[in-house]
Write a structure and sequence with these properties.
Blueprint: E1 6-11, H1 18-32, E2 38-42, H2 48-56, H3 64-88, E3 92-96, H4 99-109, H5 113-119, E4 128-133, H6 136-143, H7 158-174, E5 180-184, H8 189-203
Parallel strand pairs: 1-3, 1-4, 2-3, 4-5
Helix pairs in contact: 1-8, 3-4, 4-7
Length: 213
């Protein structure tokens, strides 16, 4: 069976539930159809410079150009080594964070949104991009920030997190040609998972038939 590759992205502020939903969707796809071959991946991809910066820099808005440059360079490597070749093989790629993180995080840092969009020209556009919306106070409770301080460049600044959430919610209007879908991240886990399945089959109705029945 000749199958076209698919590229699906899971996005949102930290502790929005994206990683949980990515894993649940992977389990669903794998059990739904024996021809579904999956790649689960994430960003940052392999840049140690990014991880060092996130751990050692405590100011949310500092080093915005360096953050932008490092994330985009790492993304180009990710596309070259993982996303593009596996799309060509017909696999389904589920990606935990993609360019929308840079567009939102680095815009919240003070970069110009349009400049960041231009820096991503020529990169693959996902078939679906799910953004899980969660109020900042709920995300902070999930992270444990109500009772402790977490090491992290962006997590401790509540105003930064609020701006970040606003930017994620604006993405469908800012990028109207891209398949960006906002989901309620505080709904029941199983209800969110069911919504993702429905949206997937709306996009790919030919995939609805199960090859296990």
């Amino acid at each position: 069976m000749d199958r076209k590759g698919k590229f699906i992205v899971f996005e949102g502020i930290d502790c929005c539930g994206k990683t949980t939903q990515l894993r649940k969707f992977a389990d669903f796809l794998y059990s739904h159809n024996k021809y579904n071959h999956l790649i689960l991946t994430r960003e940052p991809y392999q840049s140690r410079a990014i991880r060092t910066l996130m751990q050692t820099d405590t100011e949310a808005t500092s080093n915005k150009e360096k953050c932008s440059d490092e994330f985009i360079a790492d993304r180009k490597t990710h596309i070259k080594e993982v996303i593009s070749p596996n799309m060509e093989k017909g696999l389904i790629i589920l990606d935990d964070r993609y360019k929308y993180s840079t567009l939102c995080y680095q815009t919240a840092q003070g970069m110009l949104f349009d400049d960041l969009v231009k820096a991503h020209e020529g990169m693959p556009v996902p078939d679906l991009a799910f953004i899980f919306d969660v109020p900042v106070n709920i995300a902070r409770k999930r992270m444990g920030l109500e009772t402790r301080v977490k090491e992290g460049k962006f997590e401790n600044d509540i105003n930064f997190q609020k701006r970040l959430r606003e930017l994620y919610l604006l993405l469908p209007r800012l990028l109207p040609e891209e398949p960006i879908l906002i989901l309620n991240g505080v709904a029941h886990i199983d209800a969110i998972a069911k919504d993702i399945q429905t949206l997937y089959f709306n996009k790919f109705p030919e995939e609805k038939t199960s090859f296990y029945k």
